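pasting for the record
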Amino acid sequence: MALTRRALVKGGTASILLPPILSHEAMAQAVVDTLKIVTGFAAGGTSDTVCRRLADALRNQYARTALVENKTGAGGQIAIVSMKTAPADGTVLLQTPASMLTIYPHIYKSLQYDPFKDLMPVSLACNFEFALGVGAKVPATIRTVPEFLAWAKDRPADANFGSPAAGSTPHFTGEMISRAGNAKLQHVAYRGTQPAILDLIGGQISSVCGPIGDFMPHLSGGKVRLLGVSGAKRSRFVPDVPTFVEQGLKNVATEEWFGLYLPAGSSAERVQQMNAAARTALARQDVVDAFAVMGLEAKSSSPAELAELQRRDTSRWGPIVKAVGFTAE
């Protein structure tokens, strides 16, 4: 695939990660003086934390100084749009969830960016899966997804699920569960998974579909029960929880990934240098372990592999979005 891609972003705040004093060897290896890693989500969240871990790892091998810049707003779109005017010299790197690139084109009538023309694929950063969790509103005797769907059918007022955002992968995963079980679950959109889980624990909603890692801090007390996970196989983070497919929900297998992108127009040399640095960073055990705490599998790729994954997922989500009938305002 030709290396001609570019991204999109806009205003935000930068949080500087001060570099340690580097050896002459490390300074000689640095490709750029300062690297900004841009994320479309707020400080403290999963996307931001991933960026900070990467900044720590890249500082010693790609850049003398690394910054994380939080350009928040419009569900991650502002960060992507900003890449359209970012310098294509290897000093600005976008980290974005897949949804903004593979689902948004199907739900927004007019995006301010073209995911295939405005961004230059560099590497995967990680992937992760989703779970359906229930809480206080659902009887403790219900332990499987089919049991929950049967319960929901008998109680239309309680037949609902929360997700971290309308138009997100968890939103459509929940819709797929609803359709597979013919249960007509009402979607409730939140600004993030944690607010949804708090309402789940409090009994305001019946279920939540969100990243497995977001549920993990709440499982030990028994206030949240996971009924199923979205992977093609069971998650190593919650190995006792069966997949949706195992429970008879055919074709309900989804995952999300975070990808790394340079602005369109970046040279092939810069893309390869950034890819090599990202691969090294993502293979570090401290990075792998830090990601695992959040339920993320650190994973790198070639630029071509990321480009192909983006194309494949974009094609896959089109019919699903059309079937659900959801469009964003």
